[in-house]
Amino acid sequence: MMRRMLPIPLHLEAMEAAPVKELPAGRSWHYEPKWDGFRCLAFRDRASVHLQSKSGQSLDRYFPEVLAALGAAPLTRFVMDGELVIPVSGGLSFSQLQMRLHPAASRVQRLSRETPARYMVFDLLADGSQSLLTTPLGERRTRLEAVAARAFPGSTGGVVLSPMSLDRTVAQVWVDGGVAGLDGAIAKQREAPYQAGVRDPSVMVKVKRIRTADCVVGGFRYGSGSAQVGSLLLGLYDAAGLLHHVGFTASIAHADRPALTRRLDRLRGPSRFTGRAPGGPSRWSTERSSAWEAVAPTLVVEVAFDHVTDERFRHGTRLLRFRTDKKPARCTIDQIAPLASPVKAMKAMKAMKAMKAMRAMKKPTGVTAVRSTRIPAAKRPRARPRTARRRS
């Protein structure tokens, strides 16, 4: 049971980021990667450790390995802000995180051994008996780095210090550089205190990474209580030529729905989803949500998406346009394949820092740079004409 000896209450709400389209620029901003995981506040008071979700729910029983890692640190009291992630081959797995939210303790224990979670810590809210909520972020980060160096050395344990940068170009790599497990980037004002439960766009913002894919329309659903199309069911072909259902898009302009409905009605027929098909059993599906109409896979649409879990769009996608110039067979599932490992993002950031440091190095004392002098053409000595050798 967590004792009430901490300088911060256990019901503290996490600070929120306001969504924006572009990363802000300027020396007052501090940038961090936005991890694709569970936001989590970690409290420790001597031997007691507590994990709290963004909604205020306890996560203690679902991540016993993280509790153990935090409890083993040579620290007495602290409150940290971070993200729970589960590393897998090639990136991070959000579906593995969701599997932890299971009532059976035996299953949670087994998963904690097979796919251990990691706590990516990015803020220190209390250090010992001192609250840091009113302390500027720059100073909190300095103290966090000192604590992490002492208590969580290395980058492969259960608790890892999340990287940060003062360089906007590094943050832009996190947004669009093709790194699995990253959801984009966060920008925070370096002089700002920790504003619990507040979403202030002048203090903390987020830019989410958006990707696009060309998908085949393999079916549709009617709108609720309507005779017009409500959403399109999307498919992608695998290497074996099987068409798999990967998600849906419902962002169809109302003015376009009557004509699109007539067009889809003309294409209705047997299902061409030869791989995974829509309408499978789910605890969230209803009679209406599982009913759908199959169409011939001749239409291609380009959609924007944010996350992919188990080769499916995790959320609804945004319809960008119809691709009349694209053959359906070219709409392959490799478009939504996992990106590079997050470790590459950290290595890229370190390499960029090293290059900047080399450029900033001063020339050695006593060495003078020699400028090349170009001789005008008029003053250049004429080359002696070459004499042809006589052949004997």
Provide a compact summary of the structure.
With 392 residues, this protein is of the alpha+beta class.
Quickly list its features:
alpha+beta; disordered C terminus; D-amino Acid Aminotransferase, Chain A, domain 1; 392 residues; six-stranded mixed β-sheet; OB fold (Dihydrolipoamide Acetyltransferase, E2P)
What would you say the CATH architecture of the largest domain is?
Answer: 2-Layer Sandwich
Q: Count the strands?
A: 18
* CATH fold-level assignment of the largest domain: D-amino Acid Aminotransferase, Chain A, domain 1
- Output the structural class: alpha+beta
Tell me the domain tally: 2
Distance between the termini: 107 Å
Approximately how much beta-strand content do the residues carry? 25-35%
Q: What is the count of DSSP helices, taking H or I runs of 4+ residues?
A: 8
Radius of gyration: 28 Å
Taken from the alpha-carbon principal axes, the silhouette is: elongated
User: Fraction of residues in helices?
Assistant: 10-25%
- What is the N-to-C order of secondary-structure elements (H for helix, E for strand)? EEEEHEEEHHEEHEHEEEEEHHEEEH
Low-confidence residue ranges: 281-288, 361-381, 383-392
Largest sheet: 6 strands, mixed
CATH class of the largest domain: Alpha Beta
CATH superfamily of the largest domain: DNA ligase/mRNA capping enzyme
- On the 0 to 100 scale, the average pLDDT is 85
